[in-house]
Amino acid sequence: MSTGEVRGGDVTTFEEFVTATAGPLLRTAVFLVYDRHVAEDLVQLAYERVARRWRRLASGNPEAYARKIIVNLAIDERRRRRDLPVGSVTEVERLAGTASAGPFCGPAGAADGELDEALRALPAKQRAVLVLRYWCDLSEQDIAETLGISRGTVKSHAARAMAALREHMTADKPRPAAKGDGAHGR
């Protein structure tokens, strides 16, 4: 199976669908909730819902449907749980048997602590937009459909999230002196 989205023509049974999508959906869920156990529960719930509708979904795009369920459940879960999430992306990569160097991972798939911290601080929908855009490589239109929002809202969530990430990543670092500043500027 390819690493792209699993469409109905690519799989013939629900079991093949689960085998092909378990790793990517679990990693997506972990990036959304930053808790391996909660992520596993979200994926399980998504698979249960997909299984109930398999006859109808099998000919379409069951992975997109499962991802939409996971994103919506993750946003709801984040609203209910305001405590600090636990678990790490590195654990999930190890358990899934993959060490991809995606946009949220440092060298050799190790999670970048500073970036993880910044992502955890984002509101749920902003984080969902970034995960769907940069981890799942979805278009703005696909993200809008997944989240049930307009393309403009996707763009504004992405812009605000990226600005917050930039601010967080540069907040602790000293800024270079501007030309003319300091003792040598006169």
Compile the SSE list and pairings:
Elements: H1 14-33, H2 36-52, H3 54-57, H4 62-80, H5 89-96, H6 113-121, H7 124-135, H8 140-147, H9 151-171
Helix pairs in contact: 1-2, 1-4, 1-5, 1-7, 2-4, 6-9, 7-9, 8-9
Radius of gyration: 19 Å
The number of helical runs is 9
The secondary-structure element order is HHHHHHHHH
Main sheet makeup = none
N-to-C span: 65 Å
Per DSSP, what share of the residues sits in E-state strands of 2 or more residues?
Answer: under 5%
Q: How many DSSP E strands?
A: 0
Mean pLDDT across the residues is 78
Shape: elongated
Structural class determined from secondary elements: mainly alpha
Could you name the ranges where pLDDT drops below 50 across 5 or more consecutive residues?
82-86, 98-111
Measured as a percent range, the helix fraction is 55-70%
Structure description:
This protein is mostly helical and 186 residues long. 63% of the residues lie in helices and 0% in strands. It contains nine helices and no strands.
Summary?
With 186 residues, this protein is mainly alpha-helical. Helix content is 63%, strand content 0%. The radius of gyration is 19 Å and the shape is elongated.
Summary keywords:
single chain; 186 residues; mainly alpha; 9 helices
